Amino acid sequence: MTFVDSHCHLDFPELAPKLPALLEAMRVARVAHALCISVDLGEWSRVHALATGHRELYATVGTHPDYPDVDEPDVATLVERATRPKVVGIGETGLDYYRLTGDLAWQRERFRTHIRAAREANKPLVVHTRSAADDTLAILREERARDAGGVMHCFTETWDVASAAIDLGFHISFSGIVSFRNAAALHEVARRVPLDRMLIETDSPYLAPVPHRGRTNEPAWVVQVAEAIARLRGIGVETVAAATSANFYRLFSIDPDAA
After folding, report:
1. Is this model's pTM higher than 0.90 or not?
2. C-alpha dihedral over 143, 174, 36, 94, to 10 degrees?
């Protein structure tokens, strides 16, 4: 039984100095691979270096929706970097109306750029949405994101949003929030998402699952996310591990044996 962390930020300052210990903790916890997510093209080389320097790690390329004061990514740059070794996805992209206010047209255009790049590169999208579900789904439809596919990461929306995303060909990824006692609506989503469309993640260094809540999160703790989902569904954790790992490798076109 092995697990995969489909979304983490090992280049962030909370985690980067501890990388050897984090990789060893992954090994002990049987977390076979982790996907290091790009949030700023200006810092992308650090994310890519993690992936190329460690067999357990992969990378994406993209700019987060709530980073306003950075160089805007263009389709050509995203597509070119998506061809680099061990780059398996486009993002983190999407919409976030929670942290930023005012005219966010630039955010929507950035999202469209990432979707167009994903379609051209034939790489899946890693989508962040917060307080923006309607616009997120509308843009995914308008830009034919189904052609690329992808994942709604750190999902916290309703079952209706999850169902609509699944209909668009997307996977639903659960973070440590699913282990929180007060996340009743998310618990219902976790019970209903088909196992073949589910991923698990840490979003580390954030959102550590119970019993680590409040601490700096790390990829090894994705095991507790799987355990929380298994309890909610009344199934064995090995079933969640097998399904989410297989989904990850299929979505991101990774051969786990070669990896």
Report:
1. yes
2. 30
